[in-house]
Write a structure and sequence with these properties.
By secondary structure, the chain is of the alpha/beta class. The protein has one domain (about 5-260): NAD(P)-binding Rossmann-like Domain (Rossmann fold, 3-Layer(aba) Sandwich). It is built from ten helices and seven strands. The protein has helices at about 15-25, 35-50, 65-80, 90-95, 105-135, 155-175, 195-200, 200-210, 220-230, 255-260; strands at about 5-10, 30-35, 55-60, 85, 135-140, 180-185, 240-245. The protein has a seven-stranded parallel β-sheet, with helices on both faces. The protein binds nicotinamide-adenine-dinucleotide (NAD). Nicotinamide-adenine-dinucleotide binds near residues 91 and 142.
Length: about 260
């Protein structure tokens, strides 16, 4: 990624932070964009301490003016944007407030769709305008396995991320003939700060572990695949929905037919 400029939303924490650190280590200049300006600054200092170059930008991806200012600040500092790795989501909003459809308050629906789907629309729109001007770029949208397999109680989140998955394909069809690639990553359960509450509960942890064949993932495992999608080695990859899920979507249940039929 030497010489590339990577803009990473949600770059101050979790998967976005892992992407910021890893892409910087691979030689990219990084824009750490996050609603939490102080934590974005901390990540920038970590990148600089490791010998990299980075800029912190405060952004609220729900606001068009804020997204446009983020793009302008990135271009002013580094001249171009080669990679967008879009992660910004308030995980507590989803974990604490999303519900089964019959109990889902309408304001929660609008809040989650506004952040997850409209936030992706606004971010991708203004970054892609710059990429089209350059006639090159790689957009990587973080979706989720919950957009591919149902998850009870997360009706707003799954709908919004399902929209992100669909947009990935239509955006690729629209933008790739002019040099801009678009891909989505669907992670399984990733050990990020707000998800740790599930892991502190022994019953929840065991249930989550039983669904992940190779264990619960670290953010770096998702970030490593984002680096590949960002690089020119992935130059023919666009419109793809890629699971990085420790086998989550590979099977429907941990049942053992041998134990039942072949005794
Ligand atoms: N952790 C998981 O298990 C998991 C699984 C599948 C998908 N994902 C997706 O991965 C992405 C990152 O999740 P994470 O677990 O690393 O979360 P995280 O909470 O560690 O990081 C998300 C970052 O987004 C920022 N943010 C929140 N609202 C914002 C806004 N309006 N504008 C700009 N920034 C904002 C937060 O400040 C935070 O730094 C999300 O899109 C999430 O839906 C996570």
């Amino acid at each position: 990624m030497k010489g590339k400029v990577a803009l990473i939303t949600g770059g101050a924490s979790g998967i976005g932070k892992a992407g910021s650190m890893l892409m910087a280590r691979e030689g990219a200049k990084i824009v750490v964009a996050d609603i939490d300006a102080a934590r974005a600054e901390t990540v920038v200092r970590e990148i600089e301490a490791a010998g990299g170059e980075a800029l912190a930008v405060r952004v609220d991806v729900r606001e068009s003016a804020s997204v446009q200012a983020m793009v302008a600040a990135s271009v002013e500092r580094f001249g171009r944007i080669d990679v967008l790795f879009h992660n910004a989501v308030s995980v507590p909003l989803v974990n604490k407030h999303d519900r089964r459809i019959t109990e889902l308050p309408e304001e929660t629906w609008h809040a989650i769709v506004g952040l997850v789907l409209t936030g992706t629309f606004l971010t991708a729109k203004y970054v892609a305008q710059k990429m089209l001007e350059q006639r090159s770029g790689s957009i990587i949208l973080t979706a989720t396995v919950d957009a591919l397999v149902g998850q009870a109680g997360l009706d707003a989140y799954t709908a919004a991320k399902g929209g992100v998955v669909s947009m990935t394909r239509s955006m690729a069809a629209g933008l790739s003939p002019e040099g801009v690639r678009v891909n989505a990553i669907c992670p399984g359960f990733v050990k990020t700060p707000h998800q740790s509450v599930f892991l502190d509960d022994d019953k929840e942890r065991a249930a989550i572990e039983s669904l992940h064949l190779m264990g619960i993932m670290d953010p770096e495992e998702v970030a490593a695949f984002a680096v590949f999608l960002a690089s020119d080695e992935a130059r023919s990859m666009t419109g793809g929905i890629h699971v990085v899920d420790s086998g989550y979507t590979a099977f429907k249940a941990n049942i053992d037919p041998a134990a039942v039929f072949k005794r």
